[in-house]
């Protein structure tokens, strides 16, 4: 029987007195003996307020509210609330203003009893006599793998957050998947496994999980979950084909016809399965979208690729997602206050984040805003572009129907209201972005912050307020016009049925136009932000034959509190792992960035070094006589080309060169070509073709040189002989003038921290560690890393970098001596 503890009684009385005897709603915990304790006021008044306030409550909790009359009979609203709470496993009780009695309307759910994992059995399963060894033909016992699996199992049994760095070759994916699979088998509770790269997702679902299913002999289900827009909509594709003449030009129609042929053979209907990359305009017309979905009314509902994937996800024990989808889910949950029901993903209480060093970057993109000139114009062009677009498709359907007053009125609204509104929006958006481009163009790098460090908007931005208002109001007018047209058509049941699908497309366009207007307001106008934001405008690309794209962005400066609230405080178990999480100082940097530094959580931390023999397999060379990276850039780039040429000569190709800027990459590529390097070795340069194709050709060649920037520092796996040399051109410090970096530096300094040692240095050390990790990917690999940035030996902080790297021998000296050492190493 439930009863209030004396402390709870006193707290409830005090809050009711504060409310002058009116109704107050409390959320309380229930102990094993039925004692109701730790009540906290969460709402006052009506049903909607109560339900909104308890969205974040956990199953097993109790809602208590008072009846000022003293009558403890549940009212009709009480019964409605009780029914809604019951679905979440939350109880409801009524008390009087003195909290003397407690009338329980509905009991809270009994806390679930879990079957704990046997940590010794987990260890044994990975050991020499376990099922994994019997199933794997190339099995080798890895003590680090078994230790990591035990830590993960402890996380499932005891809850909390585990942070584990597992060096390359540890076998970390099997180490965390095995406990997740066993937990699902014993407790029928799913785990979400989130990664940053497609390569790792494909490894998990194509290799590791099927292997564990065979090895363990335990039935479990897993699913790869992609964002909805990754799937083609069968219905929308067919509609687009029917209206192709009204929607597309000849080239795009040919693309659509190729997509239709693919649709007959594809198994999963995803963008990744498509043998070509469709233009954004074509994919916009055929992608699965929630706001243009007929759901169960759709004739293709059962065969729908997205709905099938969703059904698979709902029954899966292991969900494999990417970080962006996970943070999309968390953003929706945070906005709705929903932490118990399905959102973008099914409900989960256990999460494993692999490649966890990317958490902050992935979360940043989902809690800010970004809108570009190209994007806004494409949205408007989808509605109307030279007589083609969604409006033309609506007009054709109207003209094909009965000639009546509604038809004439709707056609008039399209011709006289909507088309002019779209054109006005286009004009106002172009005018705004033209002025933003001029603002960005005034800076050397095409990037301008729109507010000073104290948050005050720049005078140049304030001067744009009329243009901002004109553009956003014009976009709003398009949305209102679409709503009015829909309301007019819905007055007639026959027209409503006839135009259901084109109206859905129109309303979906309105949703995206409204989102663009809202993003412009967030990025350009001052307001009360839920999270402190930094705002900027940037101009990228452009040239004699190509218009530059202009983008305005807003991003949160500090995500620690938001991540703690939306993720780590909401799940029972979180495991964070990667080959690069710890610096010389351990995990302090990671904890500070993602909300794990404040205490209050059960934390486990461990570093499991790579089993590779770096002392024998690798060599780190640091030239001391190259030009300073702070000096003339062209001189430094020519020296870089010298080193690349010498390393390629010693190793006969097989060289990655990692840059921190496209400018340097282009300069070095041109210098290498001038010297004839591309005649001796295949030379692949990022930007010449897609990344996957570059890596594929590099591996196939076996003796190529590949030049890459940001995306090549991680997530690229080239084991074996094709990669045997690595050049790192500069220490990968963030550019301090880049708006988001500058804002985070300022925030740390305001709090009394040292932004260099607290942020810039550890971030660069982890990035260097990721780049270094491209070279040695297996026990058979052997190669040299040449780090050209001599600051690593000249500056006091250089030791921090070197002590954060794997233990390869370090050789310093003039390049002539190091080049001879390289020749001997490869010889």
In short:
With 827 residues, the protein is α/β, with parallel strands linked by helices. The strands form four sheets. The protein has a seven-stranded parallel sheet, sandwiched between helices.
What does this structure look like?
It contains 34 helices and 24 strands. The chain is an alpha/beta fold and 827 residues long. The strands form four sheets. Strands 9-10-8-11-16-7-17 form a seven-stranded parallel sheet, with helices on both faces. Strands 20-21-19-22-23-18-24 form a seven-stranded parallel sheet, with helices on both faces. The longest helix has 37 residues, at 405-441. It is globular and about 90 Å long. It starts with a strand and ends with a helix. The model has no long low-confidence stretch (mean pLDDT 91).
């Amino acid at each position: 029987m439930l009863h209030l503890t004396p402390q709870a009684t006193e707290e409830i009385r005090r809050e009711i007195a504060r409310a002058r005897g009116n109704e107050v709603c409390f959320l309380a915990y229930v102990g094993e003996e039925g004692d109701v304790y730790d009540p906290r006021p969460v709402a006052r008044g009506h049903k909607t307020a109560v339900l909104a306030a308890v969205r974040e409550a956990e199953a097993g909790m109790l809602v208590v509210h008072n009846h000022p009359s003293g009558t403890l009979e549940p009212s009709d609203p009480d019964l409605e609330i009780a029914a809604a709470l019951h679905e979440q496993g939350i109880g409801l009780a009524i008390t009087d203003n003195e909290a003397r009695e407690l009338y329980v309307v509905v009991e809270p759910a009994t806390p679930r009893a879990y079957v704990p994992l046997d940590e010794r059995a987990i260890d044994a399963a990975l050991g020499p006599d376990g099922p994994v060894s019997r199933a794997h033909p190339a099995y080798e016992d890895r003590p680090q793998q078994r230790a990591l699996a035990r830590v993960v199992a402890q996380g499932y049994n005891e809850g909390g957050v585990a942070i584990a760095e597992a060096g390359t070759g540890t076998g970390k994916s099997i180490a965390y998947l095995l406990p997740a699979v066993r937990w699902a088998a014993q407790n029928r509770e799913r785990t979400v496994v989130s990664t940053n790269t497609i390569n790792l997702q494909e490894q998990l679902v194509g290799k590791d999980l099927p292997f564990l299913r065979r090895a363990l002999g335990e039935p479990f289900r897993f699913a790869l979950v992609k964002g909805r827009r990754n799937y083609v909509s069968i219905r929308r594709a067919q509609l687009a084909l029917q209206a192709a003449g009204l929607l597309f030009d000849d080239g795009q129609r040919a693309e659509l016809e190729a997509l239709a042929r693919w649709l007959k053979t594809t198994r999963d209907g995803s963008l990744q399965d498509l043998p070509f990359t469709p233009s954004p305009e074509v994919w916009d017309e055929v992608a699965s979208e929630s706001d243009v979905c007929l759901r169960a009314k759709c004739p293709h509902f059962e065969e729908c690729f997205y709905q099938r994937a969703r059904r698979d996800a709902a029954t899966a024990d292991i969900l494999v997602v990417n970080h962006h989808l996970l943070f999309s889910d968390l953003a929706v949950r945070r906005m709705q206050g929903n932490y118990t029901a399905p959102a973008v993903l099914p409900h989960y209480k256990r999460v494993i984040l692999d490649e966890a060093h990317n958490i902050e970057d992935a979360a940043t993109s989902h809690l800010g805003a970004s809108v570009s000139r190209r994007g806004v114009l494409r949205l408007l062009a989808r509605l109307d572009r030279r007589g083609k677009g969604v409006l033309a498709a609506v007009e054709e359907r109207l003209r094909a129907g009965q000639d009546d007053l509604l038809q004439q009125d709707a056609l008039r609204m399209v011709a006289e209201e909507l088309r002019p509104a779209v054109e006005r929006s286009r004009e106002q958006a172009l005018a705004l972005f033209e002025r933003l481009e001029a603002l960005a163009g005034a800076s050397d790098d095409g990037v301008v912050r729109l507010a000073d460090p104290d948050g005050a908007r720049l005078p140049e931005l304030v001067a744009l307020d009329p243009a901002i208002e004109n553009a956003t109001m014009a976009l709003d007018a398009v949305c209102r016009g679409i709503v009015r047209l829909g309301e007019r058509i819905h007055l007639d049941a026959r027209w409503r049925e006839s135009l259901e699908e084109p109206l859905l497309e129109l309303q979906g366009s309105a949703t995206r136009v409204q989102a663009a207007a809202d993003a412009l307001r967030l990025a350009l106008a001052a307001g009360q932000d839920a999270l402190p934001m930094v705002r900027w405008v940037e101009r990228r690309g452009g040239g004699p034959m190509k218009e530059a794209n202009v983008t305005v962005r807003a991003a949160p400066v500090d995500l620690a509190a938001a991540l703690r609230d939306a993720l780590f405080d909401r799940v029972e178990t979180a495991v964070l792992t990667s080959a690069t999480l710890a610096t010389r100082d351990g995990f302090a940097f990671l904890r500070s960035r993602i909300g794990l530094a404040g205490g209050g959580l059960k934390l486990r931390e461990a570093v499991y070094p790579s089993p590779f023999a770096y002392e024998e397999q690798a060599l780190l060379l640091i030239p001391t006589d190259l030009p300073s990276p702070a000096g003339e850039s062209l001189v430094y780039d020519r020296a870089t080309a010298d080193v690349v040429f010498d390393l390629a000569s010693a190793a006969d190709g097989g060289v990655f060169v990692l840059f921190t800027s496209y400018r340097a990459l282009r300069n070095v590529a041109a210098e290498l070509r001038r010297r004839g390097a591309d005649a001796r070795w295949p030379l692949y340069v990022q930007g010449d073709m897609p990344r996957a194709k570059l890596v594929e050709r590099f591996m196939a060649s076996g003796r190529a040189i590949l030049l890459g920037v940001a995306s090549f520092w991680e997530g690229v796996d080239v084991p074996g002989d094709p990669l045997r040399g690595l050049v790192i051109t500069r220490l990968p410090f963030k550019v301090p003038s880049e708006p988001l970096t500058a804002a985070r530096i300022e925030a740390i300094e305001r709090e009394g921290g040292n932004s260099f040692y607290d942020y810039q240095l550890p971030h660069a050390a982890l990035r260097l560690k990721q780049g270094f990790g491209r070279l040695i990917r297996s026990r058979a690999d052997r190669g040299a890393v040449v780090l050209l940035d001599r600051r690593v030996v000249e500056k006091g902080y250089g030791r921090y970098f070197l002590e954060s790297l794997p233990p390869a021998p370090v050789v310093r000296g003039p390049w002539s001596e190091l080049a001879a050492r390289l020749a001997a190493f490869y010889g």
